[in-house]
From TrEMBL:
Enzyme Commission number, as recorded: 2.7.4.7
One GO BP: thiamine biosynthetic process
Enzyme class: transferase
Gene3D superfamilies: 3.40.1190.20
Coiled-coil residues: none
Gene Ontology cellular component terms for the protein in this record: cytosol
SUPFAM superfamilies: Ribokinase-like (SSF53613)
Gene this protein is translated from: thiD1
Presence of the UniProt keyword Kinase in the record: yes
Protein name stated in the entry: Phosphomethylpyrimidine kinase
Superkingdom to which the source organism belongs: Archaea
Amino acid sequence: MALSIAGFDPSGGAGILADIKTFSALGVYGAGVITALTAQNVRRVSGVMAVPPEFVAEQIDLVMEDLNIVHAKTGMLYSEEIVLTVAEKIRKYDLQVVVDPVMVAASGGSLSAGGFSDALRDHLLPEALIATPNVAEAERLSGVPIRTVDDAVRAAGVLGEICDVIITGGHLGGNNVLCIDGDVSVLEGELVESRNTHGSGCSFSAATTAYLEMGLELADALRKAGDFVREAIRYGHHGTLNQFWMYGEQVSAEDLHD
């Protein structure tokens, strides 16, 4: 089993719903703690309502009281106060956490409040097993402008001093930049020609968490998660991923787990 601590996207394409779908598609039981409600679809975000930090804490406590969870992921945390609350609970329960530093929706809508990136960098990233920022998020967290793969390598080096990191390559020609234990490498990949990318970052971090829960080493979990998301994008529809259809009709369980 695994835990997602993230926001709610009512369109079902991103956020906690995408995380739970991903966990389920990979055969991992998913629990969820909601940090914010959003009014959004694939094209735009019109509103955000943050959950009070004390209620986020209460959700985590009650989940951990009842379930033996080791691996978790974070998504949209929205505010500095929620970041601090979640970091405290990660330490309390010794969770192995994949941090997806969600700040801006793919449609351009803001999913974070003032002071968020500093709080994330200073308080949550030090608790992370790995962080999975896209290019825009890596720029904010590292302070390094990223226009090329070489720029991303420099940013990964900066963030790698805090925690292991993979800068996902949707804006790097499909190449991911990985830093594990201070060793930076470029993982060459391919871009799938598709508009079905809403929720891809959520699904990548959730799939990584699921594979870690299955017992894979970090590098293998990241590779399998990349394969999972690439095929989900390839066979998605309506601008978003469709993990269930991809899992059931296009890729066998052996393909995903072996």
